[in-house]
Amino acid sequence: MADKLIIFDTTLRDGEQSPGATMTKEEKLRIAKQLEKLRVDVIEAGFAASSNGDFEAVKAIADAVTESTVCSLSRANDRDIARAAEALKGAKSSRIHTFIATSALHMEQKLRMTPEQVFEQARLAVRYARNHTDNVEFSPEDGSRSDLDFLCRILEAVIAEGATTINIADTVGYGVPELFGNLVRTLRERVPNSDKAVWSVHCHNDLGMAVANSLAGVTIGGARQVECTINGLGERAGNTSLEEVVMAVKTRRDYFDLDVGVDTTQIVPASKLVSSITGFPVQPNKAVVGANAFAHASGIHQDGVLKNRDTYEIMRAEDVGWMANKIVLGKLSGRNAFKQRLQELGITLDSEQDVNQAFQRFKDLADRKAEIFDEDIHALVSEQTAHQEVDEHYQLVSMAQSSETGERPHARITFTVDGSETSSQSEGNGPVDATFKAIEAKVASGAELMLYSVNAITTGTESQGEVTVRLAKGGRVVNGVGADPDIVVASAKAYLSALNRLQSNVLRVDPQRGGV
User: Which residues constitute the domain of residue 347?
Assistant: First the structure.
C-alpha cells in the first residue's frame, strides 16, 4: 500500500502575508470551508497571537471545520502557544505549530539570542504546547541555511519533548532541489528519534523552485507532509503551489507512489475563490488553474487532441474542476433557488437579512447580464461581506464618463462621504484615470496606487469585470475589489473599497505577523 502524502494548506496564514492579501474573518471562513471541501488534511487558519482579528478568525474556523485538522501558528513562547490553544478549543481536530529561527544569521541579527538560548526555548515551547494538544508541529525557521549539527540537536530535543511533526522550512527560497532533498534525508538519518515524527517541508518560491524543492523533500528526503497554498499565494514570490504538488503526485503516481486525499475537482473552485477574495488574479499560463492550462492554439496540437486527448493532455480539465461550472440562474430565478445555490457553493450568510441583500444584488445583476455563473455569485457575496466588515466611509452613488477619439476622457462621479453626497469631475489619460482623479479631487487621500488590474470573472463579452486596486499609505497596503459589467464602474467601486479599508481599523495588519 502506498504511503499517504499529507497536504497542509497555509493559504490563510502564509498566503495572507502577501502585501494587500489581508482577509476579513468572513472571507477566511469561506476559504476554509472550500479547503474542507477540497479535503486538505490540515488547514493553517492563522497566527492567533498576532492580532485580535486573527484570533477571532482562527476561532471561527476551528468551530466551523470538522473534516480537516485546524492549526494555528505560534512563536516559541508561552503567550503565543496559550493564545493558539484558546482559539483552537472548539476544533474537532487541532494542531499547534510553533517555530523559532535556527540559522546563525537569524539568531544573531533578528532574535539576538545564542544557540543555547534558542535550543532551550524551542524545547520548552514544545513541552508547553503538549500540555494543550497531542498534535504539535515544530519548524526551524530558515532551516535550509542552518548549521546541520545544531539542527540535528534541536530537532532531536523537540521530538523528545513530544513534537509529532517536524517541518523543514526553506524560509527564503534558498534551496536547490537535490540539496534540499538531501538535507531532509540527512536530518532523518542523523536524528536518532526521527521515526517518532512525520517530516514535512515548507518551501518559498524566490528562485522559482518551491514545488521542485518540496517534491525533492518528499522523494529524496522522505518527507510525508507538504505545506502549500492555493495558487502559490504567499510572501514575496509566493509559496509551494498546492494544485501543482497534488496534480504532480496524482499524475505521476508511477514515480511518486503516494496517495493524496484531496478532491481534485475542487481545485479550480478553490483557486477562483482565493483569487476573488484576495484580488490576486491567476496568470493565464499558470499550471493547472491558469485559463490557458488546457487551451491548445497550435494547429498540430488541436488536431492531436481532437483525435486523442492523451496526445497533448496529461490531465483532464474536468478532473481539476474546469468543466464543473455551469450556468445556474437567471433573472426569472426565485429566492429559494438562489438560496439553494448558495448552499451548493458552500456560502453561508449570517442572517436572512444578509440573504435578502445578496438576492437583491443578484436580481440587479441579472437585469444587466443574462447568464449568471457561480463565479458571479462568489463575486457579489465577496463584495457584500467586504461592505459589512468595513465601515463604508465612501460609497458610490452614480457616475458618468466619456471617452472619444481625439478628445480627452472625462469622468463625473457622485459618492457619499459618511452619508453625505458629494460630486466631483476630472479629466484623465483614460476613463479609469479620470475616475480616480475625480475621486481624489475630493478625498485627497495621499495614497499611492500600487496596482490596478482587471480580470474577467467569466467568459464572453457580458462578463463582469473584476477590478483590483492596491493602495499604500503610512506603511499599510490594502486591496480594494469591485465587480461590475461596466469596467469603469467596477474600477470606481474598487478604488472606493480600497479607501474604505485604509480608513478601517478592522483590517490593520499587525507588525508581528510572520513565520516560517
Answer: 335-382
Q: From 98, 87, 148, 104, select the one nearest 123 (Cα to Cα).
A: 98
Number of structural domains the chain divides into: 3
pLDDT in tens, 51-99: 998 999 999 999 999 999 999 999 999 999 999 999 999 999 999 999 9
The predicted-structure confidence for 229-268, as pLDDT tens digits, reads as follows: 999 999 999 999 999 999 999 999 999 999 999 999 999 8
In terms of phi and psi (left: phi > 0; alpha: psi -120 to 50; beta: otherwise), the region of 424 is beta
Find where cell 492580532 sits: 51
Q: Give yes or no: residues 210 and 343 share one domain.
A: no
Question: Same domain for 357 and 419?
Answer: no
Q: In terms of domains, do 253 and 144 share one?
A: yes
Residues 6 or more apart whose Cβ sits within 8 Å of residue 499: 393, 394, 439, 443, 445, 447, 471, 480
Shortest CA distance to 260 belongs to which of 226, 290, 236, 291?
226
In one-letter notation, the amino acid at residue 480 is: G
| List of residues 6+ apart from 38 with CB closer than 8 A | 9, 262, 263, 266, 267, 270
Whether 187 and 156 have beta carbons less than 8 Å apart is answered as no
Residues across the chain? 516
> In whole angstroms, what is the distance from residue 149 CA to residue 223 CA?
20
**Three-class SS state of 227:** strand
